[in-house]
Each structure stands twice: as structure tokens, then as C-alpha cells.
Amino acid sequence: MTSLTAGCGLVFAGVPGAVLALDPRSGATHWRARVGGSEVNGLALAGKRLYVAGDFGLSVLDAATGRRLRSWPTQSGVTVAVSGERVLISLQPN
Question: Structure pTM?
């Protein structure tokens, strides 16, 4: 399953072990960032930060460049959502 979200003039797609930032008109890849693991469970955009959740843990990427700003590995999967100015994170049981 592919996770998708859009914002900052790009479409973001979670694929196994990575996130792609795509041009919404041409479909061209703007950037690709490796996040690890085999599954991206969710993407959430808050301002210019892209939160990426998966079986690897949680990573925060710069939405414009794909540069990793922060990451938290976990022993279980993670899901993420944004509500207003709050980022909601849920740890999944092992």
C-alpha cells in the first residue's frame, strides 16, 4: 500500500523504504529520501515538515528538499496524522 499526501506544491508518496516528492503536473520526481524499513504507514505534512511513519519508526523530513531533520527508531510500527497545529503519533503494538 502506498501512502500519499500533498502540499508545498508537491505530491508525496511513501514507497518501500523511501519517500518520493513528485511534481503534480508532470509526475517527475523532485526528490527521493530513504527512510529505512520496508513499509511506510503514513505521511503527514505540517508546515514545511513532512512526518513519515513506518515499521522503521518516525522521521521528519524537510518537505522542499527531503533532507532528514530528525528520526526516532522504534521496535514497532508507527502511524502519524496532523490536526491543526498538532502532530499525532500512534505506536503500534509489537
Answer: 0.89
Is 29 buried (19+), middle (13-18) or exposed (0-12) by CB count in 10 A?
exposed
- What fold characterizes domain 3-91? Thrombin, subunit H (2.40.10)
Domain boundary assignment for the chain:
3-91
Closest CA to 60 of 92, 23, 35: 35
For residue range 17-38, what is the model confidence (pLDDT) as tens digits?
A: 999 999 999 999 999 999 988 8
pLDDT tens for each residue of 57-75: 899 999 999 999 999 988 7
